Amino acid sequence: MSRVTVPKTYKLYIGGKFPRSESGRTYEVTTQAGEFVANAALASRKDARDAVVAARAAVTGWAGATAYNRGQVIYRIAELLEGRRAQFVDEISRTEGVTTAAASAQVDAAIDVWVWYAGWADKYAQIAGNGNPVSGPYFNLSVPEPTGVVAAIAPQARVGTSLLGLAAVVAPIIVSGNTVVVVPNTGAPLSAISLAEVLATSDVPGGVINVLTGSPAEMAPWLASHADVNALDLAGAGDIDWVELQLSAAETLKRVLAPVAGVPAPALERITAFTETKTVWHTKSML
Amino acid sequence: MTIDHPVALAPAERAVRLLGGDLTEKALALHLDGLAGVDAVGLEQRAAGLATRSIKTSSKAWALDTIIRTCDLTTLEGADTPGKVRSLVAKAVTPDATDPTTPRVAAVCVYGDMVPYAVEALGSAHGDPDAGLVSVAAVATAFPSGRASLEIKLADTRDAVASGADEIDMVIDRGAFLSGRYGMVFDQIVAVKEACRRADGTYAHLKVILETGELVTYDNVKRASWLSILAGADFIKTSTGKVSPAATLPVTLLMLEVIRDWHRLTGEKVGMKPAGGIRSSKDAVRYLVTVAETVGEEWLTPHLWRFGASSLVNDVLLQRQKLRTGHYSGPDYVTVD
């Protein structure tokens, strides 16, 4: 007797919960050949709004955690990915249409990216910060601080980016204590939501990473103009009108990282791009 | 106990008209206990149904302005200072500095000892909300518990009125009400109403707080609403905001139904004020829908409808900014409190 298959409906990840889109919309995720794989939620501007509220609420706790603790939490993501490797390899090979070996290599690379950025958590401040020489009996210290809520468009290329591109965009944003609202790869969003399911059972607090599957062209303008978003990572926005996004981001003085081809390489600059420098003066002891 | 000699005839006039001249505890109890019971399931279903209405575009813009126009901007903390009251007043007069078309709130609601500071800070903006000015409301009668002797409660009220309060928010004695001493609750409301009289013979508006969270059942809420109206309340108000649950949609609907029944019976219009726990514009719009569908849109004026809230105005301002600019706003663009 043949059995009826039970395809999974992938939902959004907002504030540590998995809601459907408030619009009730879904879209079909297919293989490269057009074969049905699963339904994913098609997020609307109101989902983006809710995600920003959740991200804002999470900033205080996440930015207030010690750098060492944030590093451990991010390293834990890599550990959990390793444990569920088979599922990710399967999803990547089905949606991207690549061989198991290629999918496996992408999971490896994604895990390495998480580990690489986890290591920077309690080290980037030593590179980006400084003790400034001043002519007086004062310590003068410049320290990098997280900017707040960052909206990001993950790389959209159909092959080779669905899990790795997401990690390469999200990890540098959250490592300094920012929270993120990310639009993952539209064509191959399954590994992003599976990653969200990993995050929900990891030590990452709800609201630090929010995943909105759907159309970057639809949501990006709302995120770019949103007054409560502090910065914009347009890594995967090369195919949409990103100049317009930069213009509306400028209205509220957001930091903007321009689109890149392919997957952004791990770099310290991606961490410091989403930090503000705070300079403090303190008197030296008289003793 | 009898109420043969009401403290003030004028405020108790409603009860005398309805129940006759021999206004006794027994007559009051017979009347209140004889009220039809509340269908709790039906009430909650009706409230849930009203909460599903979708209010968009120009209706939403009107609703947001109405929420601000009928809001009592409130600070009722032990840590209140004259400075905090002044900043509250500044916000009441100019809710959104980026948009001068934003209407003013109806009143600021403070503790009795803060009334002089509120009056002083308002200056020429102090007055009737119908004229675009801002009133001062004071909580009195040993707010929020109401556990003090009648003399203290009356002194509390007179003090606030003498300081310039236009509206008095009193609490009923829930202990007396729950133990069935309706006459005592009635007498106290009548006495406080009398204490609201100013030197020139006019009265400060009296809002009677039922503290529905402590009354437990819908039947009790209905009886307490009816009792307060009989005793001369200008407004009935759900809660102090200090007890959870505070205002809920079903309780507000029930109290509005009592107000509607009273209007049908006598032609008099009594006001309604839900207070506590209403934080989002979405919630507040549901209350407006409930008012319009229960007693009618003519109730949506500051003289018959108020929101008691502290953080609601900020959310409404964010929504207003979104409608005006076309993009989402954030908490950095409204005041901290």
Describe the structure.
The complex is a heterodimer of chains A (287) and B (337). Chain A contains 10 helices and 11 strands. Chain A has 287 residues and is an alpha/beta fold. Chain A has a single domain (9-283), classed as Aldehyde Dehydrogenase, Chain A, domain 1 (3-Layer(aba) Sandwich), CATH 3.40.605. Chain A has a 5-stranded parallel β-sheet with strand order 8-7-6-9-10, with helices on both faces. Chain A starts with 8 loop residues before the first strand and ends with a strand. Chain B is an alpha/beta fold and 337 residues long. Chain B has a single domain, classed as TIM Barrel. Chain B contains 14 helices and 8 strands. Chain B has helices at residues 9-19, 25-33, 40-50, 57-69, 82-93, 115-122, 150-162, 174-178, 182-195, 212-215, 218-231, 249-266, 281-294, 312-325, and strands at 71-74, 107-111, 135-139, 167-171, 205-209, 235-237, 271-273, 307-309. Chain B has an 8-stranded parallel β-sheet with strand order 7-6-5-4-3-2-1-8. In chain B, helix 4 packs antiparallel against helix 14 (312-325) and helix 12 (249-266) runs parallel beside helix 13. The longest helix of chain B has 18 residues, at 249-266. Chain B is globular and about 60 Å long. Residues 1-9 of chain B have low confidence and may be disordered. Classes of the chains: A alpha/beta (287), B alpha/beta (337).
Largest sheet of chain A: 5 strands, parallel
Low-confidence stretches of chain B: 1-9
Shape of chain A: globular
- Globally, the shape of chain B reads globular
State the distance separating the first and last CA atoms of chain B.
46 Å
SSE order of chain A: EEEHHHHHEEEHEHEHEHEHE
Q: Would you tell me which CATH topology of chain B applies?
A: TIM Barrel
Low-confidence stretches of chain A: none
CATH-scheme architecture of chain A: 3-Layer(aba) Sandwich
Q: Biggest sheet of chain B, in brief?
A: 8 strands, parallel
| SSE-based structural type of chain B | alpha/beta
Number of helices of chain A: 10
Q: List the strand order in the largest sheet of chain B.
A: 7-6-5-4-3-2-1-8
The pLDDT mean of chain B sits at 93
Rg of Cα set of chain B: 19 Å
Instruction: Let me know the CATH homologous superfamily of chain A.
Output: Aldehyde Dehydrogenase, Chain A, domain 1
Q: Which quaternary structure do these chains form? A: heterodimer
CATH superfamily of chain B: Aldolase class I
